[in-house]
Write a structure and sequence with these properties.
By secondary structure, this protein is an alpha/beta fold. The chain has a domain at 19-67. The chain is built from 2 helices and 3 strands. It has a 3-stranded parallel sheet with strand order 1-2-3, with no helix packed on it. The N and C termini lie far apart (34 Å). The relative contact order is 0.19.
């Protein structure tokens, strides 16, 4: 039976380490929500790597939801190889 409800978990300073993320996967986390109003590019990259590593180790796919800061124009260069 496929479940039609997803468990969405907001990841913050207390839950961003690999061990805690693995526990959250075991508890049923389906979607990781990241609040991009806080932190910087480097911090987000490390966190994304931790999430992907935990997902791979637990052999469970996860969706990553990025919550951006309010209505604001965001522009930038896209790498030649894409995103």
């Amino acid at each position: 039976m496929n479940k039609r409800t997803k468990i969405v978990c907001t990841i913050g300073p207390a839950s961003e380490n690999k061990t805690t993320l693995e526990k959250m996967f075991k508890a049923g986390m389906d979607v990781v929500r990241l609040n991009f109003s806080h932190g910087n590019y480097k911090q987000h990259a490390i966190l994304l790597n931790n999430i992907r590593a935990a997902s791979k180790k637990m052999k469970k796919p996860v969706a990553i939801m990025q919550d951006l800061q309010g209505p604001r124009i965001r522009i930038g260069e896209v790498d030649k190889n894409g995103i």
